Fold this protein.
Amino acid sequence: MSKLSLRQDWTIQEIEDLFSLPLIDLLFRAQSIHRQCFPNNAIQLSTLLSIKTGACPEDCAYCPQSGHYNTKIQKHELLDIEAVKTAAIAAKAKSATRFCMGAAWRSPPQAVFKQLLMLVKIIKALDLETCMTLGMLNLSQAQQLSEAGLDYYNHNLDTSPEYYARIITTRHYEDRLKTLEYVRAAGIKVCCGGIIGMGESREDRIHFLQQLANLPQHPQSVPINRLIPIKGTPLALSPTLDPLEFVRVIAVAPLLMPKSVIRLAAGRETMGDELQTLCFFAGVNSIFYGEVLLTAKNPKLEFDQNLFKRLGIQALN
């Protein structure tokens, strides 16, 4: 196997073999690949803002924003342009280089689409990379977002095709793949990953990574989330996944997708410094930076800054 080959034909057996490696060997291989493709000891910082919160018609079992569950989150309609711009300016002042905007929709309503396009243009004018996650898109919407200057579109696969129906019933796996197809066709970079620890098996985790790695083009950004069990959701009482199994998922990702940025996304607030350090060694070189991720807690800025200082990690400019 060529270390830097960009393949879209990974077999289940090949990925199983990677998962079965002694953890230290797996980490060594992941770090070795990472160092060939990215700067050492450097991390990209993104900030995520919920621009429209709650009342989503989807029934994603992990999500407190679903209208199907009583999670007592504070709902709000689409934020006005000045509020979003203010948040983006603050994020840039704290060293974020990408500003991500999330909205709890099945797909973006046409009535507010012009406002969404305006947000992209305004954030780009601040010299920040832009990312949005708005639900499912059609090709025309993807093209308009591209023309407005959107850099990344986030649309996660969440889990394996086989386990998907246990987590979401209001849309199909193929719907997600179709949105990714439209995003690629429009020339927008793809941000696509999933959530680990939702009760899935290792086999599901292997199939999930295979789906990502065998897309027509590897996602430029791969967010790996650790489930945050939220009271009121069906996954509120999910057992905690073995942290070292989570690290294995992180470490296999760069071996399958060596030039993709691996982002440690939701769930960092419950991770100790040691677990996060293992994830960085396994190939993570991007995080969400800021004290709130949509509606969930995230480590305080000073905690992250202190950890980076102790590890000798520098933020990418």
